[in-house]
Amino acid sequence: MADSTPATSTPTMEPDVASEATIPKPFPISHIAGRYLLFDVNVISYARRTHNITGVLIGTIPNLSQQNVFLGIPLELQPEEARVLVEQGHAFIVDDAEVHRKGMMAMSREQRLKLLREMDREGMELAKAESRKAEERSTKALKEKGLTRKEKKSDESNSSAAVEGSETSLFDSKGETPTAVSVSEKKLEPVPITPTTSYPPLTTPSANAASQLPDVPKSYPLFRYLHSKGYFTMPGLRFGCHYSVYPGDTLRFHSHYLATGLDFDEEFELQDVIGGGRLANRVKKAYLIGGEVTSENDKEAEGDEIAPVRTFSIEWAAM
Amino acid sequence: MGVQCNAGRPVQRSAHGGTQHQPLSSKVTALLPTTTTVSDRRQVAMAMVVEAQSAGAQTTEDVLKSDLKGSNTDRAPKKPRAKRPNFNELHAKPLPLDVYPLPAFIPHNPISIVRIAISLISHSIWRPKSHAIIHKAYFSPETQSVHVTDPESIRALWEHGFWGAGSLSRSDPRWLDQEKRRRGIDAAATSEEWTKGRRDERRQMKLERAKAQREAIEQQLREEGKLGAESKLEDLVGEESVTESPRGTLYPADAANPLGNVTGTEGSVVKEISKAIAEESPDFDIEIKNQEHLQLTFEETFFLIYVLGVLEVYQDDITLQPTDLLRLFCEHSEFTPTKRPIQGPIASDDPFLLNYVVFHHFRSLGWVVRPGIKFACDWLLYLRGPAFHHAEFAVMVIPSYSHAYWSETPELVEYSKGKANKDWWWFHRLNRVQSQAHKTLMLVYVEVPPSRHMNTGGKDEMLDIGAALKKYRVREFIWKRWSPNRNRD
């Protein structure tokens, strides 16, 4: 159900500026099992370059999933990041499972047959390649032991028959082994194929299929505010805060703030401020808290206008 | 490093090592001229070993090694340290009480039985006083604490069990000593000054390191021919031939004259002035008034009164009884701008009660329990006391509403969830702060008894404190990060 990158092609993380034109605007964000994912490297780099959205790479090797230091695509977006992109009209959410199911159901008979034939062909190719490989392996192993293949007998009988002819014909018949392949092809059955992507058979969903806005935690206003100021953010769980806030691209800068979003009237423990301030100070950052300014009058007066956000940074003073 | 040593030192060193090889090593050193380099000396020494044909070869090597080490460290004469007080003697009593243990019973020595009998009889006739003095303290609602102002009580409470904290000091109430020292009257150093000295040393070290770095860069540039033999790095920066200015790493940001106090020849103006002030003859006649008092937390106070009985708390010249105090402390346990007198019974999950239960639990087990606000936790547990060890554990008190009563009605469920549940961010923050401070994080769950209120009835009714406290249960839960790389044997 991957978006558009087939699993067979090797993903490269180098941004391809020329391919930016090919990125659909707004671009789709796959919503799979509660996660917001991006599968296309070009889209990932575009979102990072243009919209200050970094996300977290979560892709690993399926059979070596304990390798979790260097991760690749897909990129998981925080719900806040997805929400900001959708609210600003740069992206839309696609419920991938739903789109896949509906798309497959809606296929016409010809299309489906074509797809099945295509899969059969691919399966056959795979099976052929497999058998060829196995044969090569066995010949190699036999050769190492100084033995010859049984088929060689028939080969030799062929050649002995061909001795009567010219020498060149002998080498020609030896070079191609048509009998062996034709025999094995009869036995071969196509390998069953599970397609890794839904978007070569189906067409990429368009923006009007967009679903509802992503659900976000209550710290979202702070995120939106920081994003609007041009900051980059990363999840800050390891620093005990909601976001670690970078003044520019996270590869170039250290983060400046450890931000925690609160409701404006929310009560919080003084100990949390001490802990946050202490921790942030220790890692040369500042602890930042902020929330949406909400008052009863505002709610009544302006319906859906975005309320302002106020932030406070807390730093250790040397007394 | 061309280390040159005077010839006399190895003899002293060998005297430390042992006496039987002393002739050999002294012979070695006696032969040495006063200005030989290390490698020369080693050769001479080896030759001597061969000549002597003794089993002391290893020792000679050792002597030389220790000599090498010594010559490095001893070059800068160490500052004479002010003698620290003998903490073992000072804090011999773990609680502000006098105890009279019976003499030891030795089975094969009948006199020991006699001694025990004598002390038993004498104790029963002349009862020894365990409470030599009842300290006085004053309730202070503004600071949410209880103040002790009598200097003798302050010292006694601090020395015997590390109770409270000085209002003008970090913990040990030593503002007066510090003040005297600042004015040049007294010479003993307080812990704050130790810290300051250590910080100064560290700053000096950093400046020296920066200087060394700068010299290395200059050397490198000279070798590459980018810098003349006489010119300095600053010229190069000024000419903008060096694009990446190393200023940030090399210079203290606030110093107008970079690296000025590294050389020590030119002291800053502030230093000069402070020196001049210090040199002025101190006025011994002025009696400095001790403006510091000891602040006890509510939990400490309640333990001292209810469990030990060595303290009396006054409010408006009236002695407060433990039951009154419990109510008073619960009223002031949360910081609220307005006073909140508790009319009815006290809530069973009042923050004061929860904290006190944990305090009582660990104090009874022999830990020295002190407030942990500086590490964003509730309590810090010290083995013997802060003068002896760093705190071992950081305790976070979490109420636990696991009794069936708390899930009877939806309101109660909602209430207990709001009190007990914390988010992961809170926990990671706490854990990280503690691991940075090398403390073990201990989550202490206090089982809140199955009633919203203590069974006290009205305000005037007497409260059986012991029965109420017995209803609480404490669970300890140690949290440690286990990473395979750091926990390999």
From TrEMBL, chain A:
Disordered: annotated span = 126-213
TSEN34 N-terminal domain: residues covered:
28-96
Molecular function via GO: nucleic acid binding; tRNA-intron lyase activity
- The UniProt regions of compositional bias labelled Polar residues, in chain numbering, are 157-171
Q: Does the keyword Membrane apply?
A: no
- Cite a GO CC annotation: tRNA-intron endonuclease complex
- Give residue spans, biased composition: Basic and acidic residues: 126-156
Location of the tRNA intron endonuclease catalytic domain: 218-290
Q: Which residues form the active site?
A: 246, 254, 285
Q: Which residue intervals are annotated with compositional bias (Low complexity) in the record?
A: 194-205
GO BP terms: tRNA-type intron splice site recognition and cleavage
Q: Keywords for this entry?
A: Endonuclease, Hydrolase, Lyase, Nuclease, tRNA processing
Q: Which domain of life is it from?
A: Eukaryota
EC numbers for this chain: 4.6.1.16
> Which family is it part of?
Belongs to the tRNA-intron endonuclease family.
Q: What role does it play?
A: Constitutes one of the two catalytic subunit of the tRNA-splicing endonuclease complex, a complex responsible for identification and cleavage of the splice sites in pre-tRNA. It cleaves pre-tRNA at the 5'- and 3'-splice sites to release the intron. The products are an intron and two tRNA half-molecules bearing 2',3'-cyclic phosphate and 5'-OH termini. There are no conserved sequences at the splice sites, but the intron is invariably located at the same site in the gene, placing the splice sites an invariant distance from the constant structural features of the tRNA body.
**This chain belongs to which protein, by name?**
tRNA-splicing endonuclease subunit Sen34
TrEMBL record, chain B:
GO BP:
tRNA-type intron splice site recognition and cleavage
Keyword tRNA processing set for record: yes
Q: Check the record and name the CDD domains matching this protein.
A: tRNA-intron_lyase_C (cd22363)
**Gene Ontology terms, MF aspect:** nucleic acid binding; tRNA-intron lyase activity
Looking up InterPro entries in the UniProt record yields: tRNA_endonuc-like_dom_sf, tRNA_intron_Endo_cat-like_sf, tRNA_intron_Endonuc_cat-like, tRNA_splic, tRNA_splic_SEN2
Q: Which Pfam families match?
A: tRNA_int_endo
- Superkingdom is Eukaryota
Sorted UniProt keywords: Lyase, tRNA processing
Instruction: Identify which residues the record assigns to the active site.
Output: 382, 390, 439
Chain intervals with Basic and acidic residues compositional bias: 193-205
List, alphabetically, the GO terms of the cellular component aspect: cytoplasm; tRNA-intron endonuclease complex
The tRNA intron endonuclease catalytic domain extends over 352-416
UniProt lists compositionally biased (Polar residues) regions at 17-32
Q: Does the keyword Calcium apply?
A: no
Give the residue ranges for region: Disordered: 1-32, 59-86, 178-205
Instruction: Give the Enzyme Commission number.
Output: 4.6.1.16
Q: What does this protein do?
A: Constitutes one of the two catalytic subunit of the tRNA-splicing endonuclease complex, a complex responsible for identification and cleavage of the splice sites in pre-tRNA. It cleaves pre-tRNA at the 5'- and 3'-splice sites to release the intron. The products are an intron and two tRNA half-molecules bearing 2',3'-cyclic phosphate and 5'-OH termini. There are no conserved sequences at the splice sites, but the intron is invariably located at the same site in the gene, placing the splice sites an invariant distance from the constant structural features of the tRNA body.
| Family recorded in the similarity comment | Belongs to the tRNA-intron endonuclease family.
PANTHER family associated with the record = TRNA-SPLICING ENDONUCLEASE SUBUNIT SEN2 (PTHR21227)
- The protein in question is named tRNA-splicing endonuclease subunit Sen2
